[in-house]
Amino acid sequence: MVDALRLRGIADEAVLAAMAAIPRHFFLEKAFEEHAYEDKAFPIACEQTISQPYTVAYQSSLLDIKNGDHVLEIGTGSGYQAAVLAALGAKVYTVERQESLYFSTKKLLAEMGFSTVKCFFRDGSKGLLEKAPFDKIIVTAGAPVVPEPLKAQLAVGGILVIPVGESVQQMLRIRRVSATEFQEDRLDNFRFVPFLEGVNKRGF
After folding, report:
1. Mean pLDDT value across residues 127-143
2. Residue 113 domain-assigned?
3. pLDDT of 169
4. How far is CA 138 from each of CA 15, 117, 133, rounded to the nearest angstrom?
5. CATH number of the domain residue 150 falls in
6. Which runs of consecutive H residues, i.e. helices, occur in the chain?
7. CA nearest neighbour of 122 among 98, 141, 100, 97
8. Is the peptide bond before 133 cis (omega within 30 degrees of 0)?
9. For the residues 3-18, what does the mean pLDDT come to?
């Protein structure tokens, strides 16, 4: 898997090492386990997906994680992206809007020993104000616009990585350069599940 990511242009060796160290098949349903190390997205519970490894590596590289960074993840999903960030040395606060997914993924991450990942059942569009500001913020769903609370909760000097668009999303890297100024880089196109507001308490 890591060799395939290098061939696609991922050059961040820290990210590649983190992804090599994490057993991706633990985060997939049994039916897909034998394909876990292919560069593909797979369905998980609650009509969500686990992103393909290239997307995880791409977003993780853009974040430029430093040891001890406080990172907010919007969209816990399977927990794989959070695990990669933790392996890079981040303290991760991850928010999931699907209640059943929140409980199952929180349990999995704890069982795997990811003690630096803290899970929250929340509306991700509002961020996580009580833990702000964050050094880095990552969004793992396609948003129609950048939620203002996420920009507000980003520390000066921090980085927000978010895919923005409707059917196809453009990856944005937003740096907060001062209390009132942001610098935005528009990068490659991807396809994500839609970013939805509110929470869903069904699914049990």
Report:
1. 98
2. yes
3. 97
4. 15, 14, 13
5. 3.40.50.150
6. 2-7, 13-21, 53-63, 80-87, 99-111, 148-152
7. 97
8. yes
9. 97
Domains: count for the chain: 1
Q: Looking at this protein, which amino acid is placed at residue 91?
A: K
Predicted confidence at residue 47, as pLDDT, reads: 86
Question: Is residue 64 left, alpha or beta, with left meaning phi > 0 and alpha meaning psi from -120 to 50?
Answer: left
Q: Is the residue at 195 inside a domain?
A: no
Q: Which positions are catalytic?
A: 51
Q: How confident is the model at residue 127 (pLDDT cuts 50, 70, 90)?
A: very high
CA-closest candidate to residue 170, choices 134, 203, 146: 146
Residue 200 falls inside a structural domain = no
CB–CB of 30/79 below 8 Å? Answer: no
Per-position DSSP letters for 12-23, written without gaps between them: -HHHHHHHHHS-
Q: At what angle do helices 53-63 and 13-21 cross, to 10 degrees?
A: 130
Confidence of residue 107 (pLDDT cuts 50, 70, 90): very high
**196 in any annotated domain:** no
pLDDT confidence bin for 134, thresholds 50/70/90: very high
- From edge to edge, which strands make up the β-sheet containing 134-139? 117-121, 91-96, 70-74, 134-139, 154-164, 169-176, 182-190
Position 68 confidence tier, pLDDT thresholds 50, 70, 90: very high
Would you give the DSSP letter of residue 193?
Answer: P
Sign of the Cα pseudo-torsion (80, 174, 97, 89, in order): positive
> Residue 112: which domain range?
2-190
